[in-house]
C-alpha cells in the first residue's frame, strides 16, 4: 500500500465515478488517485456469529465493510454512526467494498452527520474539484 496517497474523504455516491488504474492498485476519481477511502455513516446491517461484513449507509448510498479480526470482535450494532477508513475495491454488480483498517464509533458526537457533509464538501472544493474537472 502506498501511504503517500491520502485517504480521500468521500460520499458513497461518488464511488460510481471511480475507475480502476493500472498503477499501484489504485483507483482514480477524475484526477484524484487513491487507494484508501474515508466514509462516515450509519451501520444498517451488522451480521453476528463471527461474520466480518457490515453495510454502511451515508445517506447517498451503501458500501460494504470488510472487517479485520481486530474490528470484527468489537460490539458493532445497527444504528451506530461510525467513521471508517480502508482500501476501496471496485466490484461489478455488487455494492462497493471497503476493507477496513480504521473504524471508530462517533454516535455520541453532536451534529456529526451535518459536519461530515461539510467536511467532504470543503475537501472536494479545495483539493479534488480542480483535479476532477481537469480530467473530465
Automatic annotation (TrEMBL):
Signal sequence coordinates: none
Origin superkingdom: Eukaryota
Pfam families: RMI2
Protein's recorded name: RecQ-mediated genome instability protein 2-like
Organism annotation: Camelina sativa
Classification of source organism: Eukaryota, Viridiplantae, Streptophyta, Embryophyta, Tracheophyta
Amino acid at each position: 500500500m502506498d501511504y503517500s496517497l491520502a485517504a480521500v474523504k468521500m460520499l458513497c455516491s461518488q464511488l460510481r465515478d471511480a475507475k480502476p488504474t493500472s498503477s499501484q492498485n489504485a483507483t482514480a476519481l477524475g484526477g484524484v488517485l487513491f487507494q484508501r477511502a474515508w466514509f462516515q455513516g450509519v451501520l444498517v446491517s451488522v451480521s453476528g456469529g463471527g461474520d466480518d461484513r457490515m453495510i454502511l449507509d451515508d445517506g447517498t448510498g451503501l458500501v460494504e465493510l470488510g472487517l479485520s479480526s481486530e474490528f470484527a470482535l468489537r460490539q458493532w450494532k445497527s444504528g451506530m454512526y461510525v467513521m471508517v477508513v480502508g482500501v476501496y475495491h471496485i466490484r461489478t454488480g455488487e455494492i462497493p467494498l471497503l476493507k477496513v483498517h480504521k473504524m471508530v464509533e462517533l454516535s455520541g458526537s453532536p451534529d456529526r452527520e451535518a459536519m461530515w457533509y461539510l467536511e467532504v464538501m470543503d475537501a472536494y472544493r479545495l483539493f479534488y474539484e480542480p483535479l476532477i474537472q481537469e480530467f473530465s
